[in-house]
Automatic annotation (TrEMBL):
SUPFAM superfamilies assigned to the protein according to its UniProt record, in alphabetical order: P-loop containing nucleoside triphosphate hydrolases
Source species of the chain: Advenella alkanexedens
Domain ABC transporter: from-to ranges: 4-245
Protein name per the record: ABC transporter ATP-binding protein
Gene Ontology MF terms: ATP binding
SMART domains in the record: AAA
Keywords, sorted A to Z: ATP-binding, Cell membrane, Membrane, Nucleotide-binding, Transport
Amino acid sequence: MSLLNVQGLVKRFGGLLATDHVDLDVKAGEIHALIGPNGAGKSTLVNLVSGLFAPDEGTITLDGVELVGKSMNQRVRYGLSRCFQVTSIFPDQTVWANLMLAAQAHEGSSFRFFGQRNHEAVLQQRALGLAEKTGLGDCLSHLAGTLPHGVQRKLDVALALASRPKLLLLDEPMAGMGPEDSLQMIELIRRLRQECAILLIEHDMDAVFQLADRISVLVYGRVLTSGDATHIQGHPQVQAVYLGTGEQA
Ligand SMILES: Nc1ncnc2c1ncn2[C@@H]1O[C@H](COP(=O)(O)OP(=O)(O)OP(=O)(O)O)[C@@H](O)[C@H]1O
């Protein structure tokens, strides 16, 4: 059964149909990549799923729960999380403080029956687990704002994982990275598959073909086709879109 199920989703900006009756599903444990040329509607679709935008038509369910009409916070409680391209980190705080704050934000309500000391120990354990998962163990005492871009992106992922999501939305996680950081991010995303399903928007096709179980191609707000890397690479209309002979598409 699908974890995320999007049916007949429509988003208009004035006269522009940015999301044109999109159907999409992401299965549990799957990395599903969303690709397409600039302006195809990838970010709009992720913004609709995360709750930043409200759709004009259609349904979005996560694990059977309808998300349309729910706030972004409610969606997080139902198991959705997204990376915000580093804007969610506290730059003046250490990596450790960032992780502790994130752990506290998501574990806070489950401590009614524990004493203060247990509470602190559980938060520390949780923060340490997030650091280990994302490879941040060596820079816990560093101020987040002074970290290199690639490490800040890892911290952003760690913060998004703090809510224990069922589905993680990653919008261009490799943007602005050099080859070494990109490789590390690819490794991190690959490991995350054990934690949650991922809907990945990425322009780096090498990364997409390495990581994605399935790929959906958006063109002019519509899903042109979905399938595995072999299907997508051999699809004539996808080739036309990417090689610039757009008439076929
Ligand atoms: N808030 C908005 N108001 C008006 N138009 C918008 C808004 N957000 C996006 N659009 C338009 O919707 C269309 C889809 O944009 P979107 O950013 O979703 O595409 P994209 O596939 O993510 O592009 P890119 O790869 O360049 O980020 C574009 O024509 C864009 O100009």
